[in-house]
Amino acid sequence: MQEQKPILIAGGGIVGLTTALFLHQAGLPVQVFESVRAVKPLGVGINLLPHAVARLYKLGLQAPLEKTGIKTKALSFYSSRGSLIWSEPRGLDAGYPVPQYSLHRGELQLLLLKAVRERLGESAVRTGHALATFEQDEEGVTAHFVDRDGAAVGTYRGAILLGADGVMSQVRAHFYPDEGAPDYSGLILWRTTVEAEPFLDGRTMVMIGNHRMKAVVYPISQEAHERGHSLINLIAELPVPMELPPKKEDWNRIGRLVDFIVPFEAWRFPWLDLPTLFHQAAAIYEFPMIDRTPVARWSFGRVTLLGDAAHAMRPNGSNGASQGIWDAEAVTKALLAHDDPTQALAAYQAERLEPVNKLVLSNRQTGPERVMQMAEEQCPGNCTTHCTCVSRAVLEEVATNYKTLAGFDVDRVQQILAD
Ligand SMILES: Cc1cc2nc3c(=O)[nH]c(=O)nc-3n(C[C@H](O)[C@H](O)[C@H](O)COP(=O)(O)OP(=O)(O)OC[C@H]3O[C@@H](n4cnc5c(N)ncnc54)[C@H](O)[C@@H]3O)c2cc1C
Question: Per-residue pLDDT averaged across 239-248, rounded?
Answer without folding.
Answer: 81
